Amino acid sequence: MYGPWEPLRPPAVREVLVNAPFQWWIAGAWAVDAASGHERHHDDIDVAVLRRDLAQVREWLAGYHLWETHGGSLRPLLPGHPLGSDREQLWVRRNARSPWVMDILLTPTEGDEWLYKRDHRIRLPLDQVGFVGSDGVPYLRPEIVLLYKAHGSRPKDQADLEAVLPRLGASGREWLIHALSITEPDHSWLALLA
Fold this sequence. Notes:
Strand order of the largest sheet: 1-2-6-5-3-4
Distance between the termini: 42 Å
Oligomer: single chain
Strand content: 15-25%
């Protein structure tokens, strides 16, 4: 309904954001691919940034059209217009005739800690939320991505868990078990992670 997607691949996102004055990480299934060594089809590409850096993100991407997505609808985020505090996502494209190229996820923080948007008891120091892939691109750690995916539990999320589970280290498993025990204590993944 809102036009086609032609998502950038992670190295192309790096080209757009290289030297940006804010932290960013590829999230979602692309991060699972980077951690697992597998690659599946992707409809979009998620780029996590810190919500507190929104002004810098908007300035850096001033040559693009940014649209806020919320509750199943899209609205242009025009220069100078504020973004509602309950908004968490921006779609990005070059202009009105261009396809969407990336999905910006606005991540909450407190001080130097990353916060899980659904439960702020789940947190990590910002310097522990990412890793640099073999392609030189920063990605969210797979256990963080899996925490977000656990909430949806779609078949593709299950496949992503199965792809990355053999490479998920002990500390990543322990962290995900702890996070799921707090946020979704009856989740079926807990048995697989134990």
